[in-house]
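2024-03-11 09:14:02 INFO worker-7 job=invfold-0412 stage=load source=structure_tokens
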């Protein structure tokens, strides 16, 4: 059955499809959304997703609470992503491909290997054990991602943890157990759970089950989303279980959005407008946000355009998020090249006077 799906959709055998996804090189005119049998229309992107996620969804036959969710990290005692003390669940996988992504290791749906040369003790145990000869000191990234089969033997044998796995699969029950450890902090600080990423709605059914369980336990829920999802699924499966939604509006110009984020913004804006209408008579709180990225989102034209757009929809506040250059090092660790690494503006924190200028527009 799986092989048939591969051949019908891509006219390739399963080995070819798996290899394409592994190398993050598959291109498609449509995005397949995990947890859905439908193809999301109007999305064009090259990146680490495709038919493999449809196969992942159709292979899953166990009860939903026991299905594995691709998670980047679970972080407790957070004060930065919503009110009160919160537990952050970072989902892995995203339908966008923003060039400045602050969590580039969350873009790919699959588990990856990270290499940190600052921690390496040069024992060469990993080089000696690698059967694929994928590791070399002559390689500036150390790992040849085209040769690596992700067996993770090098990670297991690394004494200094310079090599680490990025991402893990957990079932919903395990995640709930982690969340429940922080419930006393939620109760004393009016905190809760924040679903972040990556893009949480990229695993729609899993997010739905997780959020529903949290709501049943009286836990405040907050979603951070890029807005690229199928509205009907979001409205039925996610919205009923959310208290707060942080919604990213990065770039207003459609062509610029496609250039820097990998897809155009039409569906994102349409979903935002539908969301504004859907929550108008509810207690759900909505906060649109824009990351300040030098010379990309942080331009007078773009910030003013977003501010005007939000005001027309009678949304009282737009949050501007200060630029963080730490993503540059993260890209290197997972072997990703990025032309913006050479940009002086991208390699340093934004000047406060520039931040204040953009804040004056909102």
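2024-03-11 09:14:09 INFO worker-7 stage=emit residues=362
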């Amino acid at each position: 059955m799986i092989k048939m799906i591969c051949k019908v959709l891509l006219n390739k055998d399963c080995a070819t499809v798996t290899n394409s996804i592994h190398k993050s090189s598959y291109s498609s005119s449509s995005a397949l959304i995990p947890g859905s049998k439908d193809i999301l229309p109007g999305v064009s992107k090259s990146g680490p997703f495709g038919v493999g996620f449809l196969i992942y969804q159709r292979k899953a036959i166990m009860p939903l609470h026991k299905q594995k969710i691709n998670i980047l990290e679970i972080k407790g005692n957070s004060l930065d992503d919503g009110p009160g003390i919160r537990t952050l669940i970072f989902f892995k996988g995203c339908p966008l491909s923003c060039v400045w992504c602050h969590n580039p290791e969350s873009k790919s749906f699959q588990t990856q290997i990270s290499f940190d040369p600052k921690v390496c003790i040069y024992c060469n145990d990993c080089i000696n054990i690698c059967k694929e000869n994928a590791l070399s000191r002559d390689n500036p990234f150390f790992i040849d991602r085209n040769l690596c089969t992700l067996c993770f033997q090098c990670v297991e044998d690394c004494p200094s943890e310079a090599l680490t796995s990025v991402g893990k699969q957990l079932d919903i029950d395990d995640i709930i157990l982690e969340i429940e450890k922080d419930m006393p902090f939620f109760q004393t600080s009016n905190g809760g759970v924040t679903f972040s990423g990556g893009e949480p709605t990229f695993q729609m059914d899993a997010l739905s089950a997780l959020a529903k369980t949290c709501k049943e336990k009286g836990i405040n829920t907050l979603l951070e989303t890029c807005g690229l999802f199928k509205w009907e699924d979001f409205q039925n499966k996610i919205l009923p279980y959310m208290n707060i939604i942080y919604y990213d509006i990065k770039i207003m110009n459609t062509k610029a959005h496609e250039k820097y984020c990998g897809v155009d913004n039409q569906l994102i804006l349409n979903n935002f407008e539908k969301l504004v209408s859907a929550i108008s008579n509810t207690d759900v709180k909505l906060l649109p946000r824009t990351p300040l990225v030098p010379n990309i989102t942080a331009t007078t034209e773009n910030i003013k355009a977003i501010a005007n757009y939000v005001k027309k929809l009678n949304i009282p506040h737009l949050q501007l998020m200060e630029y963080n250059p730490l993503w540059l090092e993260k890209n290197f660790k997972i072997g990703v090249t990025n032309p913006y690494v050479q940009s002086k503006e991208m390699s340093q924190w934004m000047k406060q006077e520039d931040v204040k200028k953009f804040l004056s527009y909102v």
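2024-03-11 09:14:09 INFO worker-7 stage=report msg="The chain has three domains: 1-61, 65-107+167-359, 112-164."
2024-03-11 09:14:10 INFO worker-7 job finished
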